[in-house]
Amino acid sequence: MIHLVAALALGGGQAPTALLDDGTLVIRVDTQEVARETFRLVSQRGRDGSSGWMLAATARWVADGRSSVLAPVLEVTPDSEPGALTYDVRAAGSSLRISGQSSSGRYTLRYAAPGLERARELAVGPPAVVLDDSVFAPLLFVAWRAAPPSAPRALTGIFPRAPRTASLTVTDLGVAATTLNRDPATLRHILVTGGPAGPIHIWLNATGYIMKVEIPELSLRAERLPA
């Protein structure tokens, strides 16, 4: 699955950064809209000529009249491993910045807020991906790890806000019929198991871009708005 997007990123004549995808996910629990998430995926070329990716997402949640904003910016290295992370969290009048960086089998997280500074190291082996329970665009990087249909692949999920890791399994179930914004659709179905929220279903279009995420145990669905 990685090759669908990577082919676009590595094409000839690429600028230092090139927009690959941007969109908005509407997040519902049952039928009630609870959040919207905007995201932007770009390829980027380093000074040494290597190419990687950067994903910036902003999820705005509203619950019981209170709002929270989750805004991670993730870098992904040329071998599709986690790079630098900058993550701003704003909720209930408070703010927190989380920074992350990988090195030698570990992912180091630093937390900064008024009156607070701390760090945490997580043991992480490849392949790995940085995720969040309430931000769904980063699941694209999980989908990239899916092997050909019916061949499960193991990877490590890094959850910076917790902080914790989870042993995940990702399986490409192939193309299947589903719905998108209540309309019939045919999309590629990626199944992720082993995470704290139970099975996650990721649906991609023919170009490899994320169109829908479903978490049945939470009755949650995130669907991409039409362009």
Describe what this molecule looks like in 3D.
The chain is mainly beta and 227 residues long. The chain has one domain. It is built from 2 helices and 15 strands. A 15-stranded mixed sheet has the order 8-7-6-5-4-3-2-1-15-14-13-12-11-10-9. The radius of gyration is 17 Å and the shape is globular. The N terminus is likely disordered.
What is the tally of helical segments?
Answer: 2
The count of β-strands is 15
Mean pLDDT: 91
Q: Tell me the count of domains.
A: 1
Index terms:
about 230 residues; mainly beta; 2 helices
Write the SSE topology:
Elements (H helix, E strand, L loop, with lengths): L1 H8 L7 E13 L2 E14 L5 E13 L2 E11 L5 E10 L2 E10 L2 E8 L2 E8 L4 E3 L8 H6 L8 E7 L4 E17 L2 E11 L6 E5 L5 E6 L4 E5 L3
